[in-house]
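#structure-requests
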Amino acid sequence: MERKLKSAKRTVKDGSDPSEEGKTSKPGMASDGGKGKKPQQTREKIRAKLSEIDQKWVTRLDDDTASICSELEKAGIEFLISDSERIIRETDSSEPPKIISHLLFSAAPALIAKPKTHEEVKLCVQICREHDRPLVIRGAASSAFGGALPPDNGVVIDMSELAGIVSIDREKLEATVLGGTRWSDLSLELKKYGLALKTTPSSIFSTVAGWFSTGGCGINSYKFGDIAKNVTRLRVVLPDGTDRYLTPQDQLFELMRGSEGQLGAITEMTISVREMPKHSRSILLQVSNDAVAFRLISHLTGQDIPISHIMFFDQGRITELNELTPIPGKPLHESPAILLHLEADDIAGLRFEPPVEFGAIEMPPFMANLLWNDRYFPMRGRSKGPGMLGAEVVLPISAVPTYLARARSIGSMFGIRLASEAHIISKSEALVMSFYPTDQRRNLMYTMHAILSLLLTRAATDCRGRPYAVGIWNQPFVRFVIPKDKMASLKKVNKQLDPNDLFNPGKFLSKRAKLTGAFGAFLKEQLSLFAMSALLAMASFAGSITRRLFSKKEPEEMSDLELSALACARCGSCINVCPAFLLTGRETVTARGKLLIYRKLREGKSLMPDEARSVFLCMRCRACEEVCQTRLPLISAYDELEDLMEERYGRPRKLIEEFVAEVEASPEYERMLYEGTISPDAGLKEADTDAV
């Protein structure tokens, strides 16, 4: 599925452009020579109407928050203050047990600022400093480690509209993009010029700045290295309100990588790209066990083979893939598998014969292609839970079989079947993701399963591994992630730039601990590591209790709405393909936003009637279903949600009619139809055909 990137002003250095004139406009605008008046007017008209509704919330603000809003408004920076938009930003893709979330994350952010330029981000930071107000930078919020969770009564700086291409330099093979640009959008745009990204995250819909801040290992890292090796320049706004350009020669550049947004906001990034590979081939090999698989992987890494990426699937993951595939029967053997992706300038360079001494069986090419095309959707099995938990760890390649055996042993004690896959990110290390189904409706069981996630990470550290990222939940393991000398440098720079601890507080550099009380004490490094070691020793006993308490209950039947709300991975893939979001800038109109609102309603929260209107702003274009990580029945879920909202608040038919008309008048929407991003029958909402 391809679509036109809604981008900032773009230039191509050599003067040639496969599109009309080599320039596009700001997000939501058309490629019309930079004018874009109609879509710009369309967007502003709809947003003005929604802002009028938001004014009702101003009277509920405290004086200081109202003052911040006044300064943002004076500067022309859009902000959101409705309860619905604020509660959506209470979380990222993680979902802690209620006993923890109620203790730690009961307060929503005070407001959401939505800057569209570097200067606006800088001004947002300066305003927060003047008011001594904590803030967090939020991109796609696709990480499950808690790194984007907002500070209590703080400001969320939402980077979703600081997105687009600044320039493409063919000679240098570089692309400069704004920090909120999604990797998926950048990849599709580069494709038009015969170019490709070198490496991408497995969460392809995450933002470029977010992945750099988290660590940046993923697809094709085996060949090209992590993201830091493929970035030539950053533009950042620092916590002290100043800005800088950084290159790999600057110490702060390396400190920014993996700092999880605590040292500043990345507003622009120059990324090294490559010519589109001329030929490629995916190869799927199945072997008898994990040990053989990783001996084969180690053998292959020492050969002269044009491998760009290697993935591993354990037997549990293969079983899951057999259950999820649309192909009848079981197309894969119930044994571990290795997926190789080769790239070469000529077809002859793709020749490959599996070494016979490992007993590997080469599977049909269509299965290899199916798994390669699904590389960006590791959480397909979530709907079976309907929830999913897991652990993401980095291990020496030689230690992966030992870790997997131990992880499966711990999981089996809890009556859980793990499904693990690994990305080989270098000749010496693998990023291992182990997932397991759960049900967040069963609070005690879900809490036990969440503890299992920590135990798996602890088991990885015993195998010379480390968590992939820290965030909040992996703070006990921070010394395994960040070397002592780098941590000292991080703390020194953080103290200089952010003495009041305002920038993304509550994380591993922060003095403003969000984790307090008994749970906060548990996450203190020494105590928690000791406690988890004790829990590992008692895992058999704890697991037997968990199995006895929870294994016999039959799964409950759920409506499409309830299933979607529970099984949503919160990855954010639906957001930037949503015409309603592009027009309104409100996350409440997206799949993730609507499903989170429904979850909050089920928990007893209420909405103002005017606030409920945004749920109805939907074109039924199915773009969200096309990119959904877990293939959820979103359209039927929307129908259920709208019926529920109509019963409570009424149906805003006039607003729906105006919204549909404005969207369909937009050249951007017309282009999305042409490119196949959205369904040709978009807008034909059965319940509202009289309003279309």
